[in-house]
Amino acid sequence: MLDYLTGTADGTVVVLRHGGGVRGKKLLDTIRAGTGGGIEVVCTELKKDADKYDFAQAEFRSAGKKITAGALRAVTSAFADDLAELAAACQQLISDTAAEVTEATVDKYYGGRVETNAFHVADAAIAGRYGEALVTMRHALASGADPVPMVAAFASKVRTMAKLSGARGGSGQLAQQFGLAPWQVDRAKRDLQGWTEDGLGRCIEVLAETDANVKGGGRDPVFALERMIRIVSARGRGA
After folding, report:
1. Residues 120 and 226: beta-carbon distance below 8 Å
2. Using one digit for the tens of pLDDT, what is the confidence trace for 227-237?
3. Which residue in 6, 13, 195, 239 has a CA-CA distance of 20 to 30 Å to 156?
4. pTM
């Protein structure tokens, strides 16, 4: 690429993506110097779920494509770990669907995503539906899901619930205060019904234990998941 920059081809545009760090520094410095007409476009990493949601929403808005709030949440959750994949998924839904994009559309295209399955399990457990959560978890594992992102999905939701436990204010105000989207605030408030602070604390401890176990600290990651689901479904009660 360094050689190419000294004699670029007419009418050709080459796009390079750099993932950060110091690797490839000489090439980056050459592009930044303008050699071969190179320019750098800095893309700030999106770390907050609210920022990823806003990014996906902007993709559909700029294309003039309608998408329901539930569908937007679903596709953002499914690709929360990779912004490039999230962008590609949005573009596929935009180009392949003629009508409004709904949750059923997202499920048809991306229902097998590990992250989506993981959040389905977490939603059922947090709502107290132990049997449904256990069956969904086993189905997800049988479909190739990995225990680690499943624990991460639980942690993400319980962490948001803990942030909002006892918080006062409107959805917009709390969303700004905690770096969340208003829909996440509303969802967490609904999820908190029937929970106690002691129960949340117990579940956070169990999540930390489970995370260690599924990352090699325990002998049976599936048993660790089942125990976590049982305790979360009981809202922090039980051993």
Report:
1. no
2. 999 999 999 88
3. 239
4. 0.59
